[in-house]
C-alpha cells in the first residue's frame, strides 16, 4: 500500500515526469500536493495502470489535490539541453505553477536539480511508494498522452495516438521511410532491430 507522503513536518509536493524515452514530442512533468490522509483506490504508478484507469483517476486527482500543476519542455529544448536537464526543467516549471508553495519536494528517480529554496529528496521508484508521486506520474502521463493524440491528427503516419512518440518498431520504420516530423527530437537515434537499419540523423 502506498503511503500518503514521505514526511509530515512540511507541506510536500510529489513530482514526476513522462516522455523521457520518446523519439518525438515534449517531456511533461507534474507536481501534486495532496491533502493529509488522502487515499484514492487504485492510485499507483502510472506504468502499472492502463489508459482507462489513468483517465478515471486524473479528474479525481485534479479535483481533490490541494494544488497541482503540469508543465513541459518541447523537443527543441530537449535537443538543446538534453533530455535529463529538460526533465528537470519541466519539473521546475510545474513546481513554479503551483498556486500553493510547497515546503518540501519528493522526486521520482535518483537525480534532480535542486529547486531554489525548497529542500528535496529523490526516491527511486517513488511513484510506486508514495501517493503524491503516483498522482504526479498520472497527471504527467495523461496530459502528455493527450498532447500526442492531438498531434496525431496532423501527423497520422507516425501513429502517435497509439505509441505516444515512444520508439516502437512501427514508429522507427515510419521515421526511416517518411523522415522526421517537425516534432521529432533530432538528437535521438532510431534503430529498427528487425530490419537492422540505423539512422544517424535522428
For the largest beta-sheet, the strand count, sense and barrel status come to: 5 strands, mixed
Detail the poorly predicted runs.
195-202
Structural class: alpha/beta
CATH topology of the largest domain: Nucleotidyltransferase, domain 5
Percent in helix: 25-40%
Overall average pLDDT = 93
The general outline is globular
Radius of gyration: 17 Å
Spatial arrangement of strands, main beta sheet: 3-2-1-4-5
DSSP helical segment count: 6
Q: Which architecture of the largest domain per CATH?
A: 2-Layer Sandwich
CATH class call of the largest domain: Alpha Beta
The portion of residues forming beta strands comes to: 15-25%
Tell me the number of strands.
7
Span from first to last CA? 41 Å
The CATH fourth-level homologous superfamily of the largest domain: Ribonuclease H-like superfamily/Ribonuclease H
Order of helices and strands: EEHEHHEEHHHEE
Supply the number of structural domains: 2
Enzyme class: hydrolase
Binding site for a divalent metal cation: 16-17, 108
Cofactor: Mn(2+); Mg(2+)
GO molecular function: manganese ion binding; RNA binding; RNA-DNA hybrid ribonuclease activity
Amino acid at each position: 500500500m502506498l503511503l500518503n507522503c514521505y514526511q509530515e513536518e512540511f507541506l510536500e509536493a510529489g513530482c514526476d515526469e513522462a516522455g523521457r524515452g520518446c523519439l518525438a514530442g515534449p517531456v511533461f512533468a507534474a507536481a501534486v500536493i495532496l491533502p493529509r490522509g488522502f487515499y484514492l483506490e487504485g492510485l499507483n504508478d502510472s506504468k502499472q495502470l492502463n489508459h482507462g484507469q489513468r483517465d478515471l483517476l486524473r479528474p479525481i486527482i485534479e479535483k481533490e489535490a490541494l494544488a497541482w500543476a503540469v508543465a513541459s519542455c518541447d523537443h527543441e529544448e530537449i535537443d538543446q539541453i538534453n533530455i535529463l536537464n529538460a526533465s528537470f526543467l519541466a519539473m521546475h516549471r510545474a513546481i513554479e505553477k503551483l498556486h500553493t508553495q510547497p515546503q518540501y519536494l519528493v522526486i521520482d528517480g535518483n537525480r534532480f536539480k535542486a529547486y531554489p529554496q525548497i529542500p528535496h529528496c529523490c526516491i527511486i521508484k517513488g511513484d510506486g511508494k508514495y501517493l503524491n508521486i503516483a498522482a504526479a506520474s498520472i497527471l504527467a502521463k495523461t496530459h502528455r498522452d493527450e498532447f500526442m493524440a492531438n498531434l496525431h491528427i496532423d501527423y497520422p503516419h507516425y501513429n502517435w495516438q497509439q505509441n505516444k512518440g515512444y520508439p516502437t518498431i512501427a514508429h522507427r520504420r515510419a521515421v526511416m521511410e517518411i523522415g522526421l516530423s517537425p516534432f521529432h527530437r533530432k538528437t535521438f537515434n532510431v534503430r529498427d532491430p528487425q530490419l537492422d537499419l540505423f539512422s544517424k540523423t535522428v
